């Protein structure tokens, strides 16, 4: 049964605004649930009277009947959208563990240490894919992780010696189709060696922006009336794709980063940025490894140092308990990415950043 | 405690209800039609309902290529000041490929073609009022022919699909190969000829009438008579176009609107000159933003427009003097050091220039003025224009509000009577210049107080005058690009350099100099660029499609 959507205003006919009807997507009466088959193998152990606690897990999930869009199975001339069908298949697998240790040396000193770690891998087993990408092993989406990015592999920059006296590229250097190139423009790899850069030179670039590795380290030390808590968190095997908004100075009325000073010049051949242009050029703005940034990080997420005031002092001022503390969040970050908060996955870097917070406090119980 | 019991009882009640639903769902009680949707049975049961579907097709007509990166930016009429715009960074460099496509692409017209096919097949199969059916089916066939004309002028031959594709019943038959260029052309003009009689001479506002069908037919005939398609310059093709344009003129329905300046304003929608248009409704999501996207950027210290269109010196030089002579004529009185004086009316209607008053402020473009609209030859380093001109045509002062503001109800005119007169003049001149050619072109000139063309021009001189008249009269109406294509002028006029005036002040006097402006590397490959590439996505999904020559396999 065809159903029509009613919407409006759609046009002004015979002098008045009118509503309209249009075909909805071609329906899929057989739609059903996704189906997940999960396997978990785990161990849990407490050894040496709590000195060592281990929880480990291996997980595997096969997800079938995933709703995916079959649009590529009809020609573009078909003229109406198709509803999603239960046809996608995906595998997730990985390990997950927690190790912690706690020991009280004496009544003054106790220490707890621990770490957690997750490594997860993901693979699209079956998706709808046009033959153009499927038949090209470099561009095939099937069999690769969800969110894999495809683009050109940047080889660095064109240098002065790549051009002859009349400013033409020397023979043997693949031509790039996005306007005239100059020394300092990004040069891409001619994967199939046909002398020109085009869609057939597209390869997977980097890893997805969902981290494959997530980990944390925590520690607690209490010594007499002092206690110290630390939490580190980190992620690995992850990239951010930073489109031109990330790297281009003064783009769209924005400011510039200090790092923009490191742009290509004949003397600065291996700069982190291409030659400087008034606005991003089409050539340097292609989806490519030039714009993929390693966003793994390790961050001191929180630190808390507290001191409990001795009872003989607090009792004098009619307090049951008194405690002073200093705590901080996001105090230290180690990451190769610049100008970005690695916890942000928005490619323009425009989300509100994580803040560094330091607070001092007093806890009084009457 | 009491509360807990109450809640438990409620949960039990809900459970019973859910179970009841689960049982009854076997009897399709849950298969309700969503309230915002209607079924086949309802939609095609009454003319008022079925009209809704046709309304949607009228609403899907594409307006301009783009109000911001305007269609004329893809030609020698104007240029975008933004380096990243599709016109500048792609099309005029001649580097559009199947994988990287510009706004000139039209393949998605097939979505509209399907809508027409659905409407036609459903209405034909219905028992609705036969008089209503006849007119509405003719309207839908006109719209389908129009969508095909856009595809044909852009790609050449395309698959002609007149049934509703259905993968469940047709299987692999949904993959259609391209028809030839000649077949596609013939389909369009045959459809127009077949429906013209069914369409009213005076249709409802913005509906297709007889005049629209004939004008579309004439336009395709003109395109087919032009050098791109008419390699042997077969005169009978020109005669065909001239005859059809003549039919439109003889309808007696259309006339030139007296005030060309306000012709495109919302207050003059559906005026006596308009033959076919795309409708807009200000203040809704189908509002028109032209006035916030094209004109001069900053007025009175505030940004009021995105300044997307910078007319070139090439266009400005085409405007005649008020005495009717082109500026190249030694007797024209044109003063290169006072270039904006005593020009024809249309120059002042269409172009904002240095010293012109706009919204009560003097427009300042001269170099060294420090104006926020100062010429920027360093192309794209600022948000300043790269020529000293902006469009004024169709710009409504009350909607001069920065950006995509959707405020105006001004319709986008697709065909108007001036184009009919100029098309007739062009075609008839190719058949053999006669008095009717002068009559037609002089009507267009008289409206803007230009004297008639000098009598006794040669065919060649007349052709040149017609081209100039057409370029000026129809600028910023998405006519320049198809004209450059059909006349095979694109290979001469798109590559090379476009120019602007550079104005400096020396000893308090303005000094004018024509200089090249940004946008080097302009290119046009006559071996392939007269047809656009079919987008890679369409090629990938239908292996029966053959790509246009020179664009590779995908």
SSE topology sketch:
The complex is a heterodimer of chains A (366) and B (554).
Chain A lengths: L2 E11 L2 E8 L11 E13 L4 E17 L16 E20 L4 E18 L4 H4 L14 E3 L2 E4 L28 E3 L14 E3 L7 E11 L2 E11 L2 E3 L2 H4 L44 E3 L2 E12 L2 H6 L4 E14 L22 E9 L1
Antiparallel strand pairs in A: 1-2, 3-4, 4-5, 5-6, 6-11, 7-10, 8-9, 11-12, 12-15, 13-14, 15-16, 16-17
Chain B lengths: L1 H23 L12 E3 H4 L3 H14 L17 E2 L6 H4 L19 H17 L4 H26 L11 H4 L10 H16 L13 H16 L9 H16 L23 E5 L11 H4 L4 E2 L2 E2 L6 E2 L1 H4 L28 H6 E2 L4 E2 L2 E2 L27 E2 L20 E5 H15 L3 H13 L11 H15 L6 H7 L3 H4 L5 E8 L2 E8 L19 H6 L13
Antiparallel strand pairs in B: 2-6, 3-11, 4-5, 7-10, 8-9, 12-13
Please outline what is shown here:
The complex is a heterodimer of chains A (366) and B (554). Chain A is mainly β.
Describe the protein's architecture and organization.
The complex is a heterodimer of chains A (366) and B (554). In chain A, the strands form five sheets. Chain A has a nine-stranded antiparallel sheet with strand order 3-4-5-6-11-12-15-16-17. In chain A, strands 1-2 form a two-stranded antiparallel ribbon. Chain A is mainly beta. With 554 residues, chain B is mainly alpha-helical. In chain B, 39% of the residues lie in helices and 8% in strands. Chain B has a two-stranded antiparallel ribbon. A two-stranded antiparallel sheet of chain B has the order 3-11. A two-stranded antiparallel ribbon of chain B has the order 4-5. In chain B, a hairpin with a 2-residue loop joins strand 8 and strand 9. In chain B, helix 8 runs antiparallel to helix 9. Chain B is globular, with a radius of gyration of 27 Å. Strand 1 of chain A pairs antiparallel with strand 1 of chain B.
């Amino acid at each position: 049964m065809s159903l029509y959507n009613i919407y409006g205003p759609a046009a002004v006919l015979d002098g008045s605004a009118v509503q309209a009807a249009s075909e909805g997507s071609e329906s899929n009466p057989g739609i059903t649930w996704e189906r997940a088959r999960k396997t978990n193998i785990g161990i849990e152990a407490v050894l040496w009277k709590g000195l060592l606690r281990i929880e480990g897990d291996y997980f595997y999930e096969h997800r079938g009947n995933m709703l995916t869009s079959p649009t590529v199975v009809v020609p573009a001339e078909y003229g109406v959208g198709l509803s999603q069908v239960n046809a996608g298949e995906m595998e997730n697998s990985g390990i997950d563990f927690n190790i912690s240790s706690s020991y009280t040396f004496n009544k003054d000193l106790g220490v707890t240490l621990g770490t957690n770690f997750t490594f997860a891998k993901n693979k699209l087993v079956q998706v709808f894919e046009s033959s153009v990408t499927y038949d090209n092993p470099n561009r095939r989406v099937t069999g690769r992780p969800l969110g894999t990015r495809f683009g050109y592999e940047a080889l660095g920059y064109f240098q002065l010696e790549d051009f002859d006296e009349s400013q033409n590229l020397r023979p043997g250097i693949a031509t790039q189709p996005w306007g005239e190139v100059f020394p300092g423009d990004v040069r891409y790899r001619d994967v199939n060696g046909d002398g020109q850069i085009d869609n057939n030179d597209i390869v997977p670039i980097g890893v997805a922006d969902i981290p494959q590795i997530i980990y944390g380290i925590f520690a607690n030390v209490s010594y007499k009336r002092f206690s110290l808590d630390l939490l580190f968190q980190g992620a690995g095997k992850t990239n951010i794709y930073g489109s031109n908004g990330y790297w281009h100075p003064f783009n769209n009325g924005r400011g510039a980063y200090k790092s923009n000073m490191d742009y290509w010049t004949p003397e600065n051949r291996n700069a982190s940025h291409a030659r400087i242009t008034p606005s991003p050029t089409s050539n340097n703005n292609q989806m490519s490894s030039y714009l993929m940034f390693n966003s793994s990080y390790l961050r001191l997420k929180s630190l808390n140092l507290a001191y409990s005031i001795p009872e003989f002092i607090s009792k004098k001022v009619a307090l049951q308990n008194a405690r002073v503390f200093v705590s901080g969040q996001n105090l230290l970050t180690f990451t190769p990415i610049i100008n970005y908060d690695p916890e942000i996955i928005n490619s323009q870097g425009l989300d509100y950043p994580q803040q560094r917070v330091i607070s001092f406090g007093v806890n009084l119980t009457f | 405690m009491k509360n807990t019991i109450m809640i438990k009882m409620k949960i039990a009640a809900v459970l019973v209800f859910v179970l009841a639903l689960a049982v009854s769902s076997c009897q399709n009680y849950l298969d309700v039609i969503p309230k915002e949707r209607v079924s086949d049975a309802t939609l095609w049961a009454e003319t008022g309902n079925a009209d809704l579907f046709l309304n949607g097709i009228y609403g899907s007509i594409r307006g301009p290529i783009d109000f911001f990166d305007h269609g004329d930016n893809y030609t020698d009429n104007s240029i975008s000041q933004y380096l990243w715009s599709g016109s500048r960074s792609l099309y005029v460099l001649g580097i559009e490929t199947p994988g990287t496509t510009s706004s000139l692409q039209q393949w998605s017209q097939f979505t509209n073609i399907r809508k027409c096919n659905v409407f036609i097949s459903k209405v034909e199969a219905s028992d609705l009022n036969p008089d209503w059916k006849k007119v509405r089916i003719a309207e839908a066939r006109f719209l389908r022919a129009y969508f095909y004309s856009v595809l044909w002028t852009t790609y050449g031959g395309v698959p002609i699909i007149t049934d509703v594709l259905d993968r469940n019943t047709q299987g692999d038959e949904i993959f259609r190969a391209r028809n030839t260029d000649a077949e596609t052309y013939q389909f369009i003009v045959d459809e127009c000829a077949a429906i013209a009689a069914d369409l009213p001479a005076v249709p409802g506002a913005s509906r297709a009438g007889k005049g629209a069908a004939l004008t579309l037919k004439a336009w395709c005939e003109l395109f087919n008579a032009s050098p791109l398609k008419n390699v042997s310059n077969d005169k009978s093709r020109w005669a065909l176009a001239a005859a059809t344009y003549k039919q439109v003129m003889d309808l007696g329905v259309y006339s030139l609107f007296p005030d060309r300046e306000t012709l495109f304003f919302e207050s003059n929608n559906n005026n006596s000159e308009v033959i076919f248009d795309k409708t807009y409704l200000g203040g809704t999501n189908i509002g028109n933003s032209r006035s916030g996207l094209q004109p001069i950027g900053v007025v009175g210290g505030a940004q009021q427009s995105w300044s997307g269109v910078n007319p070139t010196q090439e266009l400005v030089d085409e405007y005649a003097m008020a005495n009717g002579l082109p500026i190249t004529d030694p007797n024209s009185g044109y003063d290169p050091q006072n270039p904006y004086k005593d020009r024809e009316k249309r120059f002042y209607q269409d172009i904002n220039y240095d010293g012109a008053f706009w919204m009560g402020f003097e427009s300042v473009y001269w170099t060294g003025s420090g104006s926020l609209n100062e010429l920027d030859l360093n192309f794209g380093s600022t948000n300043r224009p790269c020529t000293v001109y902006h469009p004024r045509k169709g710009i409504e002062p009350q909607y001069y509000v920065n950006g995509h503001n959707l405020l105006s109800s001004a319709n986008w005119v697709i065909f108007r009577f001036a184009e009919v007169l100029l098309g007739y003049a062009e075609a008839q001149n190719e058949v053999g210049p006669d008095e009717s050619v002068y009559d037609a072109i002089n009507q267009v000139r008289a409206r803007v107080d230009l004297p008639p063309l000098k009598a006794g021009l040669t065919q060649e001189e007349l052709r040149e005058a017609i081209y100039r008249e057409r370029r000026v009269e129809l600028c910023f109406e998405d006519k320049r690009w198809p004209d450059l294509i059909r006349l095979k002028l694109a290979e001469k006029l798109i590559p090379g350099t476009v120019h602007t005036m550079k104005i400096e002040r020396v000893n308090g006097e303005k000094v004018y100099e024509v200089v090249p402006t940004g946008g080097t590397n302009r290119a046009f490959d006559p071996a392939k660029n007269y047809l656009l590439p079919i987008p890679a996505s369409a090629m990938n999904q239908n292996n029966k499609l053959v790509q246009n020559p020179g664009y590779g396999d995908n």
